[in-house]
Amino acid sequence: MRSHHDAIIVGAGFGGMGAAIQLRRLGYDDLVILERESDLGGTWHVNRYPGLAVDIPSATYSYSFEPNPYWSRLYAPGAELKKYAEHVADTYDLRRHMRFGTVVEGARWDEEAQLWRVSLAGGETVSAVYLLTATGFLSQPKMPDIPGIETFAGKVIHTTAWDDSYDLAGKRAAIIGTGATAVQLIPELAKEVADLTVYQRTPIWVTAKPDFDVPKAVQTLFARLPLTQKVARFGGSSILEVLMVAGVLKYKEFRPFGKVAEAVAKAHLRRQVKDPETRAKLTPDYTFGCKRPTFSNTFYPTFNKPHVHLETTSIASIDETGIVTSDGNRTDLDVLVLATGFNLWDVNFPAIEIIGRDGKNLGKWWRDTRFQAYEGITMPGFPNLFSLNSPYSYSGLSYFTTIESQMKHMDRLVTEMQKKGATVFEVTQEANDRFLDRMTRNLEDSVFRLGSCASANSYYFNQHGEATLLRPTSTLGAFREAGRFPLTDYTYA
Ligand code: NAP
């Protein structure tokens, strides 16, 4: 195994693979993709819980340059995404670059040698001219710090570590959390277990999911006439763009749009849940869009079943046999499912320690100042670093729009370096500040500033109370800028 490369990519999910494809197009073949898991696919390798599926139409939730005509449903099941990731790795010959079971601990810019030194668990060090971090947003599972949880004697399963060998049949189960993951999992769990208690802290906005099997004839049409699938993709992407811009980013101008979305979700709930008290508990009290809404036809009806209970009293503690709520009630359990999501802002920005020029620590800088990244991808003081999961990088509902914008940004920047014969880039402080000011101004019109978000507990907000996860521009705008940003926003050496 050689220890120096053109580029090191951390993460073998769709972001990391997109970056590798782009670097290969730019003429770099000496790449290594370091992945802590045992296989590729990122989120779609790790998550295997029952009910897992995309909730963005699959023609849109995929690379535009590698369409898959054979998605079985409008919203493909998770296993098909994992298969698609494998197909991409094979088609673009990426597997030979990947090293699995490799945990990256940190990276440090070596000013003298003008390269990144990356340290791996076990003591090995590798180096590269470019460092690309593609470690995902939702990749550090959050374990709830409920008193006594470690004493529970039954089975504990976090949704990111699903245990297929555990038989749920006939068990007394509880699930903590009602985010997008729980919304998919709860109906499936209810089919298996004898008794299910759902512990909800914050309700989620849920609308209907217009899902269906894609007929074989349509799959054949997509395969024979790819333009037809492009049209389907365009349709899906356009709807998402409108939802995002009108419902979230331009809330000031489109306030009634948010009200309509809330009315639609409430009508969905009324149609599907019989008991008014349960309906009231399932109704959010924060503005639609503050927190990621979700789509399901099966979540709400699950609460009509006699063996499913919705518990909204807060959890006081967990002991050897079950959960005790703050009113003193106890529920005895065999299995406890944690659908408690991910820790973004404490441990995942960045996911590894990154030290740039003059000892500048990326995580510390973000926390001491503000979370920021020029065009959501580069930072002053961090030469030759593409940080693909940065503040303001996620530009819309389909993560693939973000990946492809970033590929385009890399293309423009690295092509310019090649023209100049340069080997080191760094974004200027001025360009970074200008971008941050613009994103801050754009957020003024968003639901995050003008909606009622205080009770949403939304991971879109960081510990400073700023909504710095989503890029507050349209995805079209982000894509356009990736191909047009001023080249003078960078220095080249
Ligand atoms: P999440 O949205 O962060 O939800 C976590 C849930 O656990 C929340 O209901 C939270 O309550 C609750 N929780 C956390 N700690 C708790 C504690 N100590 N006590 C009680 N409740 C606690 O996580 P997620 O459901 O895994 O979804 C994360 C994201 O993954 C989604 O927003 C979405 O972007 C993505 N996702 C996508 C799909 C898809 O179909 N494409 C499917 C699943 C997930 P609070 O809200 O009160 O904190």
Q: What order do the helices and strands come in, and which of them pair?
A:
Blueprint: E1 4-10, H1 14-25, E2 31-34, H2 43-46, H3 78-91, E3 98-99, E4 104-110, E5 115-120, E6 125-133, E7 155-158, E8 172-176, H4 180-192, E9 195-199, E10 206-207, H5 216-224, H6 226-249, H7 255-272, H8 276-282, E11 294-295, H9 299-302, E12 308-311, E13 315-318, E14 322-325, E15 330-332, E16 335-338, E17 353-355, H10 362-368, E18 385-387, H11 399-420, E19 425-427, H12 429-443, H13 447-450, H14 475-482, E20 490-492
Helix pairs in contact: 1-11, 5-6, 11-14
NADP nicotinamide-adenine-dinucleotide phosphate binds at residues 53-55, 138, 144, 146, 176-182, 184, 201-202, 292, 315, 339-342, 457, 459.
InterPro entries: FAD-bind_Monooxygenase_sf (IPR051209), FAD/NAD-bd_sf (IPR036188)
EC number: 1.14.13.-
GO molecular function: oxidoreductase activity
Task: Throw out a few tags for this protein.
493 residues; FAD/NAD(P)-binding domain; 2 domains; eight-stranded mixed β-sheet; 33% helix; 17% strand; binds NADP nicotinamide-adenine-dinucleotide phosphate
Structure described in brief:
The protein has 493 residues and is an alpha/beta fold. It has 14 helices and 20 strands. Helices cover 33% and strands 17% of the residues.
Can you put this structure into words, describing what you see?
It comes from Nocardioides jiangxiensis. This is NAD(P)/FAD-dependent oxidoreductase. Keywords: Oxidoreductase. Its EC number is 1.14.13.-. It holds the Pfam family Pyr_redox_3. The chain is α/β, with parallel strands linked by helices and 493 residues long. It folds into two domains: 4-140 and 344-492, FAD/NAD(P)-binding domain (3-Layer(bba) Sandwich), CATH 3.50.50; 149-209 and 252-286 and 296-338, FAD/NAD(P)-binding domain. 33% of the residues lie in helices and 17% in strands. It has 14 helices and 20 strands. It has helices at residues 14-25, 43-46, 78-91, 180-192, 216-224, 226-249, 255-272, 276-282, 299-302, 362-368, 399-420, 429-443, 447-450, 475-482; strands at 4-10, 31-34, 98-99, 104-110, 115-120, 125-133, 155-158, 172-176, 195-199, 206-207, 294-295, 308-311, 315-318, 322-325, 330-332, 335-338, 353-355, 385-387, 425-427, 490-492. The strands form five sheets. Strands 1, 2, 3, 4, 5, 6, 17 and 18 form an eight-stranded mixed β-sheet that branches. A hairpin with a 4-residue loop joins strand 14 (322-325) and strand 15 (330-332). Helix 1 (14-25) runs parallel beside helix 11 (399-420), helix 5 packs across helix 6 (226-249) and helix 11 packs parallel to helix 14. The protein is globular. The protein starts with a strand and ends with a strand. The model has no long low-confidence stretch (mean pLDDT 96). Bound molecules: NADP nicotinamide-adenine-dinucleotide phosphate.
